[in-house]
Amino acid sequence: MPEMTTLGWFHTAMGVIALLSGAYTLYKHKEITLQRRSGQLYLVTTLITATTALAIYQHGEFGPGHALAVMTLGALALGTLAATTGLFGTWARYVRAISYSATLLFHSVPAVTDGLLRLPVGDPVLSSIQDPVLLMCYAALLVLFLGGITLQFRWIHRQQQ
Predict the structure, then answer these.
(1) What is d(CA 27, CA 38) in angstroms, rounded to the nearest whole number?
(2) CB-based contact 43:78 (threshold 8 Å)
(3) Strand ranges inside 15-159, DSSP E
(4) Which residues of 80-112 are buried (b: 16+ CB within 10 A; e: fewer)?
(5) Cα-atom radius of gyration of the chain, to the nearest Å?
(6) Is 45 exposed, middle or buried (0-12, 13-18, 19+ CB in 10 A)?
(7) What percent of the chain has pLDDT over 90?
(8) Is residue 102 in a domain?
(9) Do the beta carbons of residue 36 and residue 83 sit within 8 Å?
(10) N or C: lower Cβ tally within 10 Å for the chain?
């Protein structure tokens, strides 16, 4: 893996803050919203993380990390649209929940990838992006996302009754 630049370190720090604040918000409040400080912190650091990801070119071209950043920005926009307009009617909370939760999934993929390919420093867990362990990690993240969104949908449904 190439050495990290100052932008890379800033991007990583914002990403860690986003992941921690997002996990905390979901654990504590069951959903990410603009009305809670932890939700606001998550959304702002997610926006910063996705935006800075677009400026990082380790391999000199648009790559999977860039695609995830674009997807994150799209999910942020859709979730915020659902949260601030009446466009989605009674489905707004569900659209917001799946959009904002999807950003956590999109954060987690490069976090796991970089973490396993970079750490511990000097002797990383994995040596190749093609390692099958990564596919298992991605599958586990997808299962966590689907389980989490199912629980959120059930919670939202109970709140609306």
Answers:
(1) 11
(2) no
(3) none
(4) bebbeeeeeeeebbbbbbbbbbbbbbbbbbbbb
(5) 16
(6) buried
(7) 77
(8) yes
(9) no
(10) C
Number of domains in the chain: 1
Residue 91 is encoded by which pair of tokens?
């489905």
Higher pLDDT, 115 or 40: 40
Quote the domain boundaries for residue 44.
6-160
Q: How far apart are CA 54 and CA 14, in angstroms?
A: 14
Domain assignment of residue 1, yes or no: no
- Residue type at position 21: S
pLDDT computed for residue 59 by the predictor: 64
Residue 120: cis peptide before it, omega within 30 degrees of 0: yes
Give the per-residue pLDDT at 46: 97
Angle, to 10 degrees, between the axis of helix 37-53 and the axis of helix 6-29?
150
CB 117 within 8 A of CB 109: no
Residue 24 maps to a domain = yes
Is there a domain that residue 109 lies in? Answer: yes
Rounded Cα distance between 14 and 8, Å, is: 10
Q: Do 46 and 76 contact (CB within 8 A), yes or no?
A: yes
